[in-house]
Amino acid sequence: MRILLANPNTTEGITALMAAAARATAAPGTEIKPVTAGFGAAVIGSRMEMVVGDYASLALVAREAEGCDAVIVAAAIDSGLRAIKQMLPVPVVGLTESAIHAANLTGGRFGLVVSSTRTGAVMREMVEGYGLGSRLAGIRALGSDASAVYGDLEGSARAITTAACQLAEEDLAESVVLIGAVMAGMPARIADRVPVPVIEGVSAAVVLAEGLARLGLRKPALGSFAPPGKRSVTGVDPALAARLDGAG
Amino acid sequence: MRILLANPNTTEGITALMAAAARATAAPGTEIKPVTAGFGAAVIGSRMEMVVGDYASLALVAREAEGCDAVIVAAAIDSGLRAIKQMLPVPVVGLTESAIHAANLTGGRFGLVVSSTRTGAVMREMVEGYGLGSRLAGIRALGSDASAVYGDLEGSARAITTAACQLAEEDLAESVVLIGAVMAGMPARIADRVPVPVIEGVSAAVVLAEGLARLGLRKPALGSFAPPGKRSVTGVDPALAARLDGAG
Amino acid sequence: MRILLANPNTTEGITALMAAAARATAAPGTEIKPVTAGFGAAVIGSRMEMVVGDYASLALVAREAEGCDAVIVAAAIDSGLRAIKQMLPVPVVGLTESAIHAANLTGGRFGLVVSSTRTGAVMREMVEGYGLGSRLAGIRALGSDASAVYGDLEGSARAITTAACQLAEEDLAESVVLIGAVMAGMPARIADRVPVPVIEGVSAAVVLAEGLARLGLRKPALGSFAPPGKRSVTGVDPALAARLDGAG
Amino acid sequence: MRILLANPNTTEGITALMAAAARATAAPGTEIKPVTAGFGAAVIGSRMEMVVGDYASLALVAREAEGCDAVIVAAAIDSGLRAIKQMLPVPVVGLTESAIHAANLTGGRFGLVVSSTRTGAVMREMVEGYGLGSRLAGIRALGSDASAVYGDLEGSARAITTAACQLAEEDLAESVVLIGAVMAGMPARIADRVPVPVIEGVSAAVVLAEGLARLGLRKPALGSFAPPGKRSVTGVDPALAARLDGAG
Amino acid sequence: MRILLANPNTTEGITALMAAAARATAAPGTEIKPVTAGFGAAVIGSRMEMVVGDYASLALVAREAEGCDAVIVAAAIDSGLRAIKQMLPVPVVGLTESAIHAANLTGGRFGLVVSSTRTGAVMREMVEGYGLGSRLAGIRALGSDASAVYGDLEGSARAITTAACQLAEEDLAESVVLIGAVMAGMPARIADRVPVPVIEGVSAAVVLAEGLARLGLRKPALGSFAPPGKRSVTGVDPALAARLDGAG
Amino acid sequence: MRILLANPNTTEGITALMAAAARATAAPGTEIKPVTAGFGAAVIGSRMEMVVGDYASLALVAREAEGCDAVIVAAAIDSGLRAIKQMLPVPVVGLTESAIHAANLTGGRFGLVVSSTRTGAVMREMVEGYGLGSRLAGIRALGSDASAVYGDLEGSARAITTAACQLAEEDLAESVVLIGAVMAGMPARIADRVPVPVIEGVSAAVVLAEGLARLGLRKPALGSFAPPGKRSVTGVDPALAARLDGAG
């Protein structure tokens, strides 16, 4: 099985971090194909960059998805997720989408550790958009930008641990989700210091992508995730235009 | 006052239709500045085109908003709305966002007339995203594409009237919202045939944009709608890149 | 355009305060017609007074609405709002109803500053009644009665600023609504000290009333806001009885 | 024990109907004291009449509650309920409030039979206001005014039975609530023709009022149901003014 | 009238405590028949014990309900409640189910005092399961096990009072529910020290059971609470097997 | 990896059906260990049998889980799920829990096909209990008992297909979940006749169980899913008693 790991941020180092975590989780026989957006934000950290990232993500996957059995949208804000689910006949999952579904499956309500409070507001919208808003026990912010976390993973581990423990002890979260592409690999660093399960998106996305691919579900022929048919577009990435040309 | 009416679809004819409806509603002294996306979808009708439209909208407004006192994102799917609210220091409203807020202000729950059932699913997500999901009495589809409605407004009036009456009589909607940029001007055609108020987005957006501009609210300095500061991006529209360069 | 500004409290001084704020916001050509309840509570501050105020409001507007293009129910608890929407063929908005819709249109969740915790409970019910309960980030109380705030607006500004900042910084509100008729004009005093938009009801109600009036929506002929027809009532204010007599 | 049965409608015949049903349900030793509003609507059937009824109800109970151990607000729209709960140190329940709590206690979601669709919209708001909106399986209207139902109880029984059965069979309601003061005594007429429990407000209110009175709960000293203290009001019913004078 | 008070915990002392509280509340002529589970947990305090308790409760009631007019499932976690509602033709209520309905009937949102935070998570699920999740103002834990509270009721009274006051003063709860079978009789100890009504489950269950029994509602013939008909089971308590044998 | 497939119903034939479907889905190297309840209901089809099944499930898994890396509670009503999650240090998933999470991951709202309307009410409670109530587009019943479906899978396929298509075409479900242990293997029979993805619980549970096991999440030490510690129980299955004896 081949899984496309598509990073809508342009930072290759983060792609590498996530690819390593993905390979560590993947089943024997699963190949991870990491790709990075060709344009857009280095590290998406604002609503404006989210829109750019959605488009960069859609174009990237349009170009790279051939021959893949599943796709992981590899960013905390699940850039372009629903559009990519529509575009492809294979399973597509996002980091935050995957992590919160995995958390919900451990039972009980879950909490989120986010980089900044700005991110927290966006994450709440996302969790509600996936229908799991009632399961959100709390959101704690590290008080720094995603870029800053990426720049100092070891130092960040302490702050992340503190936030995770607060979620468990004060907000009654029965599991904790670390939000962010840069959190790939972080649970292993801190799991022994947090009294509830700690989950991050890359590993959750890998196992869910593999699992959904094995279910072999059909591509919808009806509804908002069915192929769009032949649409009229101009001035967009050629790979994307090809996918709006009426075939499958 | 000058209001930017930004159409994220590339169809100039729809921009003209909306500009006419906007001018018919605008207060004396309000200038409507209609602009049309330079690339993207002719008529957004799929999740994939929504992502393209978000980006085309953000770039368009980045380029054209100078000197404007308010901005209307002139499409049913409010392309790039939240990112544009973040980008600018002036009020920004979308067609659907405006129409449903106006409907809610008439009192009672409201229903939506949409072009296709595919659109209905997306609209439900949008209404829930704006926090008004509990006020949605029902959604009725015309069973055609937005492009088809645009191509035959007179013939569509009958189907729209039927759907609106069903929402009022069967779903107990106390007002009806016609979803779609192409619905600009439609309420006047059918108001006498529907027993409850009929609202569409362009006129609602104009009065709300004018009104919010007169409130003179400050630009947030905190939160997810505060300016993003200096962000690192590559390969994006220059007007948009300029706005991610750290100034305001 | 003429807008009726109907104060269901009997305190003329508050009516004057609100009328001044309304005129400062109104468009050129809009006349504000302030009226004050002829009986009832000086300053509504309990559930019992809310019921009295609803009735006083309905009677007041029944008497004074002739020739008006829109009506503002000028109290924080939007006295008799839904009944007045039913009674008249023109737009009717309340202070809190208007303020929270304006807040929601700036994007993001909003917080409320209220006078007492007692008011907070009632406000939560109202926000939920308007369908925007999921957008409420928090409620902070000043710890005093509405009368006390009215008696010392300058001193209250400090406490209001503190509460507003807490809502923004701790509760992640992306805008703040100051609840209370007496808050008219307050945002201008404190806007530079609060990092997010500050909104109050009178100015929001004026722009929304003007805007809705310009939409020219029809009066419902069906549903709970349609005219009541000829109803049998005794012992009520004559102006109100006239409106329950079967005409329009 | 003495229970005040306060009818905010002025129709004595409905008071008598409800008093008979109340006495048939009351425990030995419970005295029912029926009273009827001295002014207001004959049969509340519009939002305007609801406001009049709230005030008439509050004044009526202010005058008549002395020496009573509990109060039933005897109308479908629970006129003035929360204000009366604040006003008195004894339990106060409404017809619809009681019926839906009883229904919820039988287990499963419940449906409502209402007189007109206009009433249905108001009832939905009320059920949501009591926090039980998620338990509402459906609402079916008889298509007539409350007055018409009162005028022909025998004929209405057939229509009511049909609506109740539809709620059970199509909307999966596991119990049915008949909304309306005039439904007192109706369940006995139709219970054998409906496959799920049928509940109406007067009998539910009697048993809940008796039960809550026996719990002997304290009067709140804090919160929105605590006594209002000394308030300044003018031109209101003297009994009501007395209760806003600072005692109890 | 005879009410079965069925304790799904095996601790006779708690049954006796609850029986005393039940008798103190019961109407003249109501006989309380206390019974204790024959197997299972001494004091249910984990999800595992909840499942055991559900089964022990169902078997206990199957055996003991004959000749009873109502049943109280006498534990905080309402063991087997819905199954027992299905099993019997008489009203069945649980402690927590009863207490929160009584609290909601006093008006306003309510708070819960629970023994441990572990219990708090379970209680939130239960309140949401009954449809009253939106009425939950807060949950405060005593930080001890239910067994510990039972072992020191006098000492616990102080901690319970503190938690109750915090719910009223900080979380704006307008009434407080003490969760736990061991709280029977506790409100009387602390009512004068808490500014809002304090409610516990045994007394609430008694008055609700009596009241519902007097309504004489029919046994459902349709829906998930209708009798199961003849089912095939093996190896279960004989009294329970008899009730799954096709008769009523 | 070894996965315990625990059937809380006593019907071995259903266990075999599910084991075959599980093996068809499982990854190479995954061993499925099917076990069947030693007592209880043949086919759980009532709330009473649900309680019996919860207990039978808990006892069964207590006895059989040793050496397993994950557990599937193999019944539509996820018997004892939360208690088993608490009991074990490995992932535990239920059929319906798994199916609805998989459905939600395909994007869009989902619909349920259930055997009887009685089941539908219970399923709605379950979906809401997992936090995904807002994602439920509709529920359609086959109008027969789970036993009947099991007795005629081929004939049932037509009715299931009809219900699935109605969910997609009328209720706008973007995927369909077939509820019931007996639905194992059914999607393959009908996938080509339904225009949206069709999902059932056994295959979804297998891939989710495998995936969660690979994440290697820690066992909670805090919260309602942490081990219960030493609890006092009598008269329960010895394997279950051993697990309540204080060891992890």
Automatic annotation (TrEMBL), chains A, B, C, D, E, F:
PANTHER family documented for this protein: PROTEIN DCG1 (PTHR28047:SF5)
Family: Belongs to the HyuE racemase family.
A matching Pfam family: Asp_Glu_race
Name assigned to this protein: Asp/Glu/hydantoin racemase
